[in-house]
Amino acid sequence: MAVNMLTQVAYHEAAHAVLDLLFDFPFTRVCVHEFGGEEVDDEKRTTDAGIAADVEYAQFVALSQGDTSQLACARIRAEEWLMTILGGEAAAWNLTGERPHLDSTDYSDYHRALALARLLFMECTEETHEAFLWWLTLRAKDLIADHWEPVERIASLVIEKGEVTFDECCAIFTPQ
User: Fold this and answer.
1) In degrees to the nearest 10, what's the CA dihedral of 113, 77, 12, 173?
2) Which domains, ranges and CATH numbers included, belong to the chain?
3) Helix, strand, coil shares of the chain as percentages rounded to 5?
4) Could you report the per-residue pLDDT of 76-99, keeping only the tens digit for each?
């Protein structure tokens, strides 16, 4: 299914927001802006199609460190955070029907997730990291499919307004 780039980016960012809400990761706003020749804030990701997109977080999402009594909880939170990172591609997959190429050199969310997986699970091989991320991508895809209606509503609103606040996303999102 052919989808214009603005729509695909909006769904990508909306999926990040829905998974953030599902896993209780706070953020400030979701933005998607088309631009011409003007400069774009370096903090925002840009596409070749001239679209800047971002989910702006209220704070860094901290994972428990050092406390062995919280190790299982930390691993679950790490998996949730990785699914949130990978959720944008999962939404694009649901939207277009095209399976993502997670090894692509231009896919920054995947590289961010891979770097985090390497840091968290240093004892694993590269092949294991990649298989783990693929499994989390499939889990994110299922969660996005289960929460598709709020993804669509947030994506539509961000296309219309350019940005959507955390409170607006919360008003749209109701876990099923």
Assistant:
1) -170
2) 5-172 (1.20.58.760)
3) 60, 10, 30
4) 888 898 999 999 989 989 998 988
